[in-house]
């Protein structure tokens, strides 16, 4: 039994260090902004599309903020999805005030379609420009150069997809720290694989792609029956090494309001994991190999400590644990500098264990669930 545990532990440790140093490390240490000198090379129009249901309180602040973007030609298309909170009146008033704003009001959603995908499809369909930049009503760009940064790969390099980072506000409390760590790890996953020319997902809080491509693919064809996945599944189906770029720059990120109760957070993550089971097999393997080796590393290591008859095996296990923790600390810190302009993530070892438990508990619930809702 002990030999089996050692075999599993060393195999898992090898996979963990491979992912940390090679897959994630390449992004953390070697990513460079390819559009640094070419942000203004082509200033073609950009359509910001937002699907919103009962988001009047957020739209009231977001729309004037977006109007301050440092970009010559853009519009904002807000799709009011059957709201009952005064969103329609607010959007009509803002439309009269801001020439760049266009509002689309949905009265009902066809029974065979999922609501957010239907709302986004209508918004993209009526948009004026080929470059479409997506975000949510509760998101805020941190910079007036957000449009310029996020749309640059499409405008200047001819890419179809540009994948951005959507972070969350930092608030007091354990839940918020868990959210910050999980969000950062998710970003490191898809930015790292994106840089390795193997993109597999994006986030709707900060995602840019071509309208023409979206319409050529018949919008969310084959995804209509899935609640959620308007962002990660659409990217998963169509992003390739040739047509996709990642945008990692402190000026390119958006910040959202995080959940403030574990119940709301679990519901949100259950929806995200539910969509994940529809990823292509190769992408499930990429993620599964890391998460499974992560689980085996900790469980086999704990098993070895329990069955150890002297201090040598305990010291060896702890040595690997500390070495991995140090490597992870550096990798996460460097990746965060690329994404958000700041480093250090404290207590990485503690949150790494919490992340493992969260992933396997919520992941299995989301994967096995049959029904989830947008709102």
How would you describe what is shown here?
The chain has 375 residues and is α/β, with parallel strands linked by helices. The protein is 54% helix and 12% strand. The protein contains twelve helices and ten strands. The longest helix is centred in the C-terminal third of the chain and has 30 residues. The mean pLDDT is 90.
Q: What is the highest CATH level, the class of the domain at 33-173 and 198-259?
A: Alpha Beta
| Helix and strand element order | HEHEHEHEEHEEHEHHEEHHHH
Report how far apart the termini are: 49 Å
The order of strands across the largest sheet is 3-2-1-4-8-6-9
Total number of beta strands:
10
- CATH fold-level assignment of the domain at 33-173 and 198-259: Spore Coat Polysaccharide Biosynthesis Protein SpsA, Chain A
Family: Belongs to the glycosyltransferase 2 family.
GO molecular function, one term: glycosyltransferase activity
Keywords: Glycosyltransferase, Membrane, Transferase, Transmembrane, Transmembrane helix
Protein name: Glycosyltransferase, catalytic subunit of cellulose synthase and poly-beta-1,6-N-acetylglucosamine synthase
């Amino acid at each position: 039994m002990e030999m089996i545990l050692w075999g599993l532990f060393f195999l898992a440790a090898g996979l963990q260090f491979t992912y940390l140093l090679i897959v994630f490390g390449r992004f953390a240490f070697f990513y460079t902004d390819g559009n640094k000198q070419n942000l203004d090379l082509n200033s073609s129009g950009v359509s910001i599309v937002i699907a919103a249901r009962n988001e009047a309180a957020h739209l009231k602040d977001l729309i004037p903020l977006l109007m301050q973007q440092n970009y010559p030609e853009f519009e904002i298309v807000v799709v009011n999805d059957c709201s009952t909170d005064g969103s329609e009146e607010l959007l009509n008033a803002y439309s009269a005030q801001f020439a760049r704003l266009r509002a689309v009001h949905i009265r009902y959603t066809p029974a065979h379609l999922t609501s957010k995908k239907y709302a986004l499809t209508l918004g993209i369909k009526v948009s004026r420009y080929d470059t479409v930049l997506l975000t949510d009503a509760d998101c805020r760009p941190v910079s007036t150069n957000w449009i310029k940064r996020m749309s640059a790969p499409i405008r200047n390099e001819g890419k179809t997809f540009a994948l951005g980072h959507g972070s969350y506000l930092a608030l007091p409390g354990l839940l918020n720290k868990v959210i910050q760590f999980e969000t950062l790890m998710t970003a490191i996953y898809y930015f790292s694989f994106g840089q390795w020319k193997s993109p597999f997902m994006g986030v709707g809080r900060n995602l840019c792609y071509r309208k023409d491509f979206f319409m050529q693919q018949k919008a969310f064809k084959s995804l209509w029956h899935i609640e959620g996945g308007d962002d990660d599944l659409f990217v998963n189906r169509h992003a390739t090494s040739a047509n996709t770029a990642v945008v990692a720059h402190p000026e390119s990120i958006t910040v959202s309001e995080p959940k403030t109760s574990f119940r709301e957070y679990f519901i949100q993550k259950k929806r995200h994991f539910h969509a994940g089971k529809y990823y292509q097999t190769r992408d499930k393997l990429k993620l599964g190999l890391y998460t499974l080796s992560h689980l085996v590393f900790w469980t086999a290591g704990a098993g070895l400590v329990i069955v150890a008859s002297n201090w040598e095996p305990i010291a060896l296990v702890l040595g690997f644990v500390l070495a991995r923790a140090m490597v992870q600390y550096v990798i996460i810190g460097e990746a965060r500098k690329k994404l958000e302009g700041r480093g250090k993530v404290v207590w990485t070892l503690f949150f790494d264990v919490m992340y493992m438990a969260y992933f396997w508990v919520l992941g299995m619930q989301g994967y096995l669930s049959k029904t989830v809702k947008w709102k």
